[in-house]
C-alpha cells in the first residue's frame, strides 16, 4: 500500500509540474501585458514600459523559456513573482485564499451534508412525493449555469429587501467594518454571506443528491442489506450502518474533488456577488493580462487536484469495508 | 496486413444483442425491433417526450423566430431603449435599443449549435481514445491514460480563457474544438474499461484471428456494443457544453462579438437585471430550457436503452420495493 501510494504521488507530482509549466507557457505566449501600460495617460515611453515589464518578468520580447526559468526558479523558493500592478503575488494570493475559504467552508459543509441526506431520503422513498419533488428541483438547478442562479437570487433579494438593506448583494462586508470582529461586524458579514452561500449550497445539494440517490438505490436492493435485516438489525440501523456507508463510497471522490476544487474559487459566485477571492482572480488575472497571477492560479489548481486525488484514495480505503490494506 | 473484408460483417455469435448499426440483412428484423423497442420505451417516459418537444421547439424558434419578427439582432431602434415587452418588441429592448427577441434567438442558434458540435466531438474523442487505449494496451495505453490524467489536472476553464484571443481573430469553431478537447476524459476512461471486458469476447477474438485490422475491429465490433452508452453521453455532453459555453461567454472568454450566444446576451444585460428583470429572464430562461430538455432526454434515453430498467416497462411497475439492481457492466450490457 505504501509503495503504491508513493508511486502514485510521484506520478501526480510529475503531472502537476507539467500542467503548471504548460499553463505558464500558454499564458506567457498568449497574454499581452504590454497592452496594460500602453493606454496610460500621460503616455509612458517605450523604454519605461519595457523596463517595468522586465522588472515584473513579463516582457513579451524576452524569450518565453528564459522567463519561465526565472519564474520557476522563484517559485521553487516560494516566490510567485509580481502582479501586473507590481505587488507581490504571494500577498494577493494569501488574501484571496482567505476570502474564498471564509465563503466556502460553511457553504460546502452544509451543501455536502444536505446533498447526501436529500439523496438518501429520495432513494428510500423512491417515486413518492419527496423524491419526485427533489429530483425535479435538482434537474432544474443543474440545468442552470451558476451565474443565472446567482443573478436570479440577486433579483429576488432586491424584491424581498423592498428598499431596506437586509440582504446585501455586494462584497464581503461594508467598508466601515473592515478589520473588526465585534457583533455588529459579524452580523454585517452574515448579511453579506447569505446569498452567495445559498447559491453554492443550492448547486451542491442538487449535484450530490443525484449521485447519492442512485448509489443508494443500488445498495437498497443488495443482499448484504437483507442479511443485515435478517440478523435482526432495525431497519434504520441497517440502512445507516450498512446501506449509507456503502452507498456513500462512490460519491466520496466526487465530494472530495468538488470540495477541494471549490478553493480555486467559486468563480461565478464570487464574480456575481463581488467577493475578492480566488475565483475572481481566475477571471481578473486574464482580463488584466497578468501572466504571473494566471500561472499561479494554474499551479494552485493543479496542486489542489493532486491533493483531492490523494485524499479521495485515502478516504475510499478508510471507508470501504471491502478494501483491506494489502 | 491486407486481408479482404468478408462481406458478412458480423462474425459474432448469437448471444450478444445485435449491434445498433448497419449490418447484414440477416439480423435486420431483430435490429429494427430493438430500435423500435427503444423508441417505444422512450415514448413511455412523459418527461423525456416533453424534453424532446421543447428542444425541437427551441431549434425551430432559433431558426424561424428571426423570420417572424421585423427586427434584426444588429439594428438599433432609437425610439426604444430599455423598453419593456410590448407588441412592438415582444421581449423588450436592450440598453442599445436592440430587440431582445431577435438577439436572444440569434444567441440561441449559436448556443444550440455549439452544444451539438461539442457533444459529438467529445463523445467521438472519448470513444476513439478509450477503445484504442484498451485494445492495444501496454505502452499505448499508458501514454494515453497519462494524457487523460494531465488534461484532468489542467485547469480547463483557465486554459480556454487564456486562449480566447485566438478565437477572436479566427472563428468560433476554434472555441468549439477547445471545449471538445477538454470534455472527453472521464467518458474516455469508461469506454476504456468497457473495452477491456469486450476485448476478450469470442467474436472479437475471432475477428482478430481472421486478420481483421484493429481499427476495423474497434469501429465495427467494439464501439457498436457501447452504442447506447455513447448516445447518452453525447446528449449529456451537449448539455454540459451549452452550460460551459455560456459560462465562458459570460466573462467574455467564449463567443466573441459580433457573434452572440446566450451567455453573451445575459452578460451584456446583467448590470441592469435588478431594475429591468426581463432583460435577464428571457435569455436565461432559454438557457435553462435547453439544459432541462437535454437532461430529461438523457434520462429517458438511459431508461429506454437500459435493459434492466424498470421504469420503461410496459406496465407502469409502481411497486414499493426497490429499483432493479443494476448489474455490473459485463457482456456488453448497454447502459
Report the mean per-residue pLDDT of chain A as an integer.
Answer: 85
What fraction strand of chain A?
Answer: under 5%
Q: Main β-sheet of chain B, in a few words?
A: none
Describe the oligomeric state of these chains in a short phrase: heterodimer
For the largest interface, the chains and their residue counts are: A-B, 47 and 48 residues
Main beta sheet of chain A: none
Count of individual beta strands of chain B: 0
Shape of chain A: globular
Give the termini separation of chain B: 35 Å
Strand percent estimate of chain B: under 5%
Kindly state the mean pLDDT of chain B as a whole number?
78
SSE blueprint and pairings:
The complex is a heterodimer of chains A (326) and B (335).
Chain A: H1 2-30, H2 34-38, H3 46-56, H4 64-76, H5 89-124, H6 129-142, H7 146-161, H8 183-220, H9 223-230, H10 235-247, H11 251-261, H12 267-273, H13 278-287, H14 291-319
Helix pairs in contact in A: 1-4, 1-14, 5-6, 5-8, 6-8, 7-8, 7-12, 8-10, 8-12, 9-10, 11-14, 12-13, 13-14
Chain B: H1 28-43, H2 46-68, H3 100-136, H4 138-153, H5 156-162, H6 164-169, H7 172-181, H8 185-199, H9 202-209, H10 214-222, H11 227-250, H12 262-270, H13 278-305
Polypeptide structure, described:
The complex is a heterodimer of chains A (326) and B (335). Chain A is an all-alpha fold. Chain A is 74% helix and 0% strand. Chain A contains 14 helices and no strands. The model of chain A has no long low-confidence stretch (mean pLDDT 85). Chain B is mainly alpha-helical and 335 residues long. In chain B, 62% of the residues lie in helices and 0% in strands. Chain B has 13 helices and no strands. The longest helix of chain B has 37 residues, at 100-136. The relative contact order of chain B is 0.15. Classes of the chains: A mainly alpha (326), B mainly alpha (335). At the A-B interface, α1, α6, α7, α8 and α12 of A face α4, α5, α6, α11 and α12 of B.
Amino acid at each position: 500500500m505504501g509503495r503504491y501510494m508513493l508511486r502514485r504521488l510521484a506520478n501526480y507530482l510529475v503531472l502537476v509540474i507539467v500542467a503548471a509549466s504548460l499553463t505558464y507557457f500558454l499564458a506567457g505566449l498568449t497574454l499581452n501585458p504590454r497592452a496594460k501600460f500602453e493606454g496610460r495617460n500621460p503616455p509612458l515611453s517605450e523604454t519605461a514600459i519595457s523596463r517595468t515589464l522586465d522588472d515584473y518578468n513579463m516582457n513579451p520580447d524576452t524569450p518565453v523559456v528564459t522567463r519561465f526559468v526565472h519564474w520557476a526558479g522563484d517559485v521553487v523558493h516560494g516566490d510567485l513573482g509580481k502582479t501586473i500592478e507590481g505587488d507581490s503575488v504571494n500577498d494577493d494570493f494569501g488574501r484571496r485564499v482567505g476570502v474564498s475559504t471564509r465563503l466556502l467552508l460553511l457553504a460546502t459543509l452544509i451543501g455536502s451534508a444536505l446533498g447526501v441526506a436529500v439523496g438518501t431520503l429520495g432513494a428510500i422513498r423512491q417515486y413518492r412525493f419527496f423524491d419526485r419533488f427533489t429530483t425535479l428541483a435538482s434537474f432544474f438547478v443543474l440545468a442552470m449555469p451558476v451565474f443565472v442562479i446567482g443573478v436570479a437570487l440577486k433579483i429576488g433579494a432586491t424584491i424581498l429587501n423592498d428598499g431596506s438593506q437586509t440582504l446585501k448583494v455586494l462584497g464581503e462586508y461594508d467598508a466601515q467594518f473592515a478589520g473588526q470582529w465585534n457583533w455588529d461586524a459579524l452580523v454585517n458579514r452574515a448579511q453579506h454571506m447569505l446569498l452567495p452561500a445559498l447559491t453554492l449550497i443550492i448547486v451542491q445539494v442538487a449535484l450530490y443528491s443525484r449521485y447519492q440517490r442512485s448509489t443508494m438505490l443500488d445498495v437498497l436492493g443488495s443482499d448484504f442489506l437483507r442479511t443485515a435485516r435478517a440478523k435482526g438489525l432495525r431497519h434504520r440501523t441497517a440502512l445507516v450502518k450498512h446501506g449509507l456507508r456503502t452507498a456513500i463510497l462512490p460519491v466520496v471522490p466526487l465530494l472530495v474533488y468538488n470540495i477541494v476544487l471549490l478553493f480555486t474559487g467559486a468563480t461565478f459566485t464570487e464574480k456575481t456577488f463581488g467577493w475578492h477571492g480566488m475565483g475572481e482572480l481566475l477571471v481578473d488575472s486574464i482580463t488584466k493580462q497578468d501572466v504571473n497571477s494566471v500561472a499561479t492560479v494554474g499551479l494552485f489548481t493543479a496542486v489542489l487536484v493532486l491533493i483531492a486525488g490523494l485524499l479521495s484514495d485515502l478516504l475510499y480505503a478508510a471507508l470501504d469495508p471491502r478494501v483491506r490494506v494489502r | 496486413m491486407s486481408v479482404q473484408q468478408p462481406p458478412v460483417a458480423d462474425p459474432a455469435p448469437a448471444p450478444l444483442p445485435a449491434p445498433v448499426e448497419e449490418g447484414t440483412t440477416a439480423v435486420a428484423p431483430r435490429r429494427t425491433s430493438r430500435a423500435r423497442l427503444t423508441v417505444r420505451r422512450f415514448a413511455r417516459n412523459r418527461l423525456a417526450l416533453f424534453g424532446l418537444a421543447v428542444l425541437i421547439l427551441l431549434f425551430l424558434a432559433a431558426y424561424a423566430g428571426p423570420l417572424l419578427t421585423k427586427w434584426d439582432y444588429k439594428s438599433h431602434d432609437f425610439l426604444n431603449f430599455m423598453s419593456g415587452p410590448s407588441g412592438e418588441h415582444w421581449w423588450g429592448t436592450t440598453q442599445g435599443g436592440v430587440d431582445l427577441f431577435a438577439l436572444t434567438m440569434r444567441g440561441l442558434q449559436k448556443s444550440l449549435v455549439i452544444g451539438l458540435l461539442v457533444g459529438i466531438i467529445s463523445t467521438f474523442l472519448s470513444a476513439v481514445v478509450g477503445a484504442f487505449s484498451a485494445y492495444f494496451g501496454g505502452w499505448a495505453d499508458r501514454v494515453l491514460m497519462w494524457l487523460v490524467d494531465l488534461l484532468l489536472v489542467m485547469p480547463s476553464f483557465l486554459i480556454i480563457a487564456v486562449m480566447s484571443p485566438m478565437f477572436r481573430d479566427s472563428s468560433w469553431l476554434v472555441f468549439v474544438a477547445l471545449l471538445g478537447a477538454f470534455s472527453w476524459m472521464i467518458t474516455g476512461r469508461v469506454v476504456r474499461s468497457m473495452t477491456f471486458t469486450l476485448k476478450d469476447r469470442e467474436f472479437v477474438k475471432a475477428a482478430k484471428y481472421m486478420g481483421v485490422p484493429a481499427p476495423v475491429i474497434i469501429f465495427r465490433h467494439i464501439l457498436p456494443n457501447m452504442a447506447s452508452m455513447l448516445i447518452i453521453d453525447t446528449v449529456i455532453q451537449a448539455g454540459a457544453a451549452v452550460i460551459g459555453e455560456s459560462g465562458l461567454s459570460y466573462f467574455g472568454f467564449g463567443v466573441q462579438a459580433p457573434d452572440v450566444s446566450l451567455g453573451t446576451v445575459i452578460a451584456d444585460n446583467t448590470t441592469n437585471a435588478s431594475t429591468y428583470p426581463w432583460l435577464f429572464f428571457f435569455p436565461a430562461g432559454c438557457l435553462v430550457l435547453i439544459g432541462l430538455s437535454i437532461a430529461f432526454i438523457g434520462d429517458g434515453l438511459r431508461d429506454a436503452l437500459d435493459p434492466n430498467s424498470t421504469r420503461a416497462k410496459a406496465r407502469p411497475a409502481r411497486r414499493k420495493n426497490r429499483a432493479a439492481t443494476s448489474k455490473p457492466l459485463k457482456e456488453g450490457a448497454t447502459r
